[in-house]
Amino acid sequence: MNKKTLSELDYYRIKETIAGYCRSEDGKAAILDREPFTNFSEYEHLKNLSREWATFFNSTKAVPLTSWPGISPLFGILKTAGASLDLDELYALGLFCISQKKITDSIKANQQELNLKKLPSVIEQMPDLSGASRIIFGILNPDGELKELPTIRDIKRNIAAIKVEIESLIHKYTIDSSIAGALESNVPALRANRQVLAVKSSQRSAIKGIVHEVSQTGRTVYIEPEDVVRRNNDLIEEEYRLQEEIKKILLQATVQLADYREAFMENLPKMVLLDATCAAAKWGTENNCCYALSCGEERPNDTKAKEAPLLLGARHPLLGTKAVPIDIRFAANKNVLIITGPNTGGKTVTLKTFALFCLLNQTGFPVPALEGTRLPLFKDIYCDIGDEQSLDQSLSTFSGHMKNIAEAINKASDRSLVLLDELGSGTDPQEGSAIAMATLDILIERGSFVLVTTHHGVLKNYGYTKESCINASVEFNSDTLSPTYRLIMGVPGESHALEIAEKNGLSEEAIAKAKSYIQTEQADISYLIKGLNAKHAEADALIQSFKEKEEKINLKEQKTSWREHNLKRREHDLKIAENKKELAFLKDSRKRLENLVREIKEGEITREKTLAVKEFINDLTESIENHTQILEAEERNLDKAEQKQKLKNSPGQSTNQNGTSQSNASVQKIVFEPGMDVLAGTSRNRGTLIKEERKGMWSVQFGTLKMTVKEKDLTPVAKPKDEYKPSISIDLAEPETVKSNFSDFAPALSGMPTNHPVFELRLLGMRVEEALKLLERQLDLCAMQNFHEFSIIHGKGTGALQQAVIDYLSNYPGIQEFKFAPPEDGGSGKTYVKM
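User: That's the sequence. What structure does it adopt?
Assistant: Structure tokens below.
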């Protein structure tokens, strides 16, 4: 793309700001060198990495990226035989190793929790540098200083001892009274990094040694005594040994690190990529940015997937807090946007904002807008913004505009964005309008995407007559005579030149004369535009009102759905608790039965044992009957409620004094049959009819007891829904029959698959095949028993079970919808299903 165009759109200024967030010089250079991509996969990859970095910034996790110096020049040293790194260069490689390890460890540790996918794929391709790190920090401290290695320690000890001896020798001269008169000063001086004595020239023979310097006046000479000369020479030799030993250590380390040269070279671009994408995410987080969606240009064969560009709450980043968010909503097949309205209203900023956002998006950066923003892919951008007047090139304002417009017409294609600011200005209005319309005609034929600002009224009409055009205007507040900087789509705007001129001091006389020159037709158009603006504002208010009502309704529906779901879960939990109680009761009864049977079989049947059996049977019968009476009471309450509801809905029924419904038709006689459930006597014990012994007398089974009851004392009852009442028979000779009776109903109470669907199907820990079988059974039971809603707990894990469940539900007939649960109820680890 043209660098001049990118500069006019402030692209480089924004890019420099983002580069300042990098932790390394290499990352900063990479961002500054990057240009907008014209390949969707390239910039989308950068955006995906940046999105995942943004999850770090939006979480409580610390971003692990640390800085490192530039290391690319060091690869040549590692490659050259005999070359050696110095301490700073070695430390730079060490800092690179530390930064890579921190990033790798942090991404691996937070991969599952933050749902990272792209960042782990980058670090997986990075060779391990732990060996190089051990070499480097085997000889360096964490602060980059050389460690006290044994050879280094011995040499430094010798150096320290020699320095102490030199200090002692010098001190001996300064306190010697015999030469005190020869010294200019008792404080030793340093010359050529050696300690010397300041001696008077007239008495230089008092101290034997080497003269290093003579003062400018010639009165003082600086002498290094002979015995000090010898020790200083020894000091220089030891310091030389130290430097040679350090060089040897560094050379050895360099030779060892040469084996890691390829690993460093392979890791550096990946670390730079992580640094650059992290910087973009940091900038985006601080500026409330989003990552723009695609308009579908990456799928050229899928024309139905193309969507119109959309900017929501867009803010030009250079305006900071002064930016007024704007919305730009393009319609399908509308490639030309004509923006009109007053000066200083924000027309040019709108053009620049849209183009800048496209450039940032195609560079892999977020944009300062709201979620849902959608941007197209352009291969080139042409713009004519500002005054191109140039005295050096003999260009007038109009000539400068024409030069830019000619370039756009000659080079633009259906993948081009063209920005034309104040199109048709700088010359005769009539001819300028004609050129402007001709330019738009050609660009429309090319299929280019065009944004235009203008004050020409004829172009407003042009926008209405062309199918591919759409008008827009920047809003103007007539009360304050100032722009609001809001963009109104679909309606052209007025220039408001007279109002603005009056506000800026033009005399009333001049304003009055200007108004007199305005033609009637133009005034009519002005009134028409004002009317359109008023209608548009009214429509916006209605749309906003509908949106608010819709949000309230959706919130209410969500609360109702949650309340219903919680009630169903509570009902389900109560049933589970009841089943657990029944199971505990049955297990206890089973143990007692087995003990009684064993006691009877082990010895003679005594009266005490017989009484114990009868007592157990009576207790068991009483417990079951109490539970049955509770169920019957609940059923009677339910029946009464249903009868009342029927009375409300059936005008042909009346209610008698006892509160029971009575049909207008004659009451049918009750017919008793074997197997019917009845309530007997005043105690209302529940039993089952076995047979009619004689007329008016029936044999009734009450638990393990059989009795003969008069027919008039019997009342038929309906079986409760989902009732499961165990029948217990005792064979004293075969205790195994007790176990078999309990094994018939134990599965239903222990949570194993039953013949009824469940409200919450738990598939955690299961293999995919096993889980899908249970899911298939659940769906079949729901279909057969008209069970409308349930939930599936499948967890997140590796995602295999979650994906298998989603695939199965997608292809199962009879499902109305399914969706993940809200975060507070399990999120993507749980799915709601509606039949």
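The first strand starts at residue 189 and ends at 191.
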